Amino acid sequence: MKVKTILVSQPEPKIENSPYFDLQEKQKVKIDFRPFIHVEGVPAKEIRLQKIDLSHYTAIILTSRNAVDHFFRVAEEMRFKVPDSMKYFCQSEAVAYYLQKYVVYRKRKIYVGKRTFSELSPTIKKYKDETFLLPTTDKLKPEVPTILNNLAVNWKQAVFYKTVISDLSDLEDVFYDILVFFSPSGIDSLFKNFPDFKQNDTRIAVFGNTTIKAVEAHGLRVDIAAPTPETPSMTMALEKYIKKTNKGK
Question: How far is Cα 25 from Cα 135, in angstroms, rounded to an integer?
Fold first, then answer.
């Protein structure tokens, strides 16, 4: 069956030159975006119940842009003035760049990993005298605490924001040729919203091994998988599949 419509379970890209827009134009398909999950901040009073006093920490470990937003939100709610001496350990350049929204970059001590958390760990290890705070989601990857414990640094995790399933009830009678997922939480949302979901002719595209496992655990079929050496991005995997399926269109 030819592909005409795609639903991506993420917010619409804010950049004009997104590869999704190029894909839509080149392959003449309709692509809609809808977050199946969203993030909600945990109020400061709940964070205090986690026995968190921001003044006790000399370094913050930031794994995502959400972590950046919610750390500074909580600091404001707690009326805590973040000292200029605070050190920031950012998982990637994208997170470090986003930090500029809140701090004057060149005047702060900012340390940046390459991409994964394990790549940031050698830098954290060099600063064993610091007291680290890890503001995070309730869905933290288990490898993160394991890595920090193995480094034998003084650290504490605090849940500053939660991943919440979005209401998708308005999509009940809307059908797409391809559904695109990037996390197990997206699959959870699909079945929370539509407990009787049947795949039938719907193709499912997934990014990452944990998402593939979640799809298969629900008895669904994975039709398009990324990343692979040939298709390192989701848009490349989609384009390859559409070209093959829509031949002779």
Answer: 40
